Amino acid sequence: MTLPRTLPVLAVAGLLALGGCASDPVVDEDTPVSLTVTIEDGAVTPLGEARTATVGQPIILRVTSDTEDELHLHAEPEETFAVTPGTHQFEFTVDVPGSVSLESHHVGGTIATIDVSP
């Protein structure tokens, strides 16, 4: 018994249609990127977190700390966030594409690297 010739054609057409759905998601510049940071007992978490964003996309930084610290965003231009004990929220955007890092100045460590695309 042989399969009708239309069956393989339909199977290939179905696979091509599914492949079209697998494209990269479009990043919405209005949707913020969120990063939650905890500074407690002399340690920062997370460390080495990876995030992606686009130029001009809002980035929300939520920090809960039991000590004073200063977070540095190594971007163009650089930004500094003063942290005191308690919970704080900072919002920023990155205007120049590239890889930027967020670091703790006093407690130490690279909290996150954000790859910013055009």
UniProtKB/TrEMBL annotation:
Keywords: Signal. InterPro entries: Cupredoxin. Residues 1-22 form the signal peptide. This is EfeO-type cupredoxin-like domain-containing protein. It comes from Mumia xiangluensis.
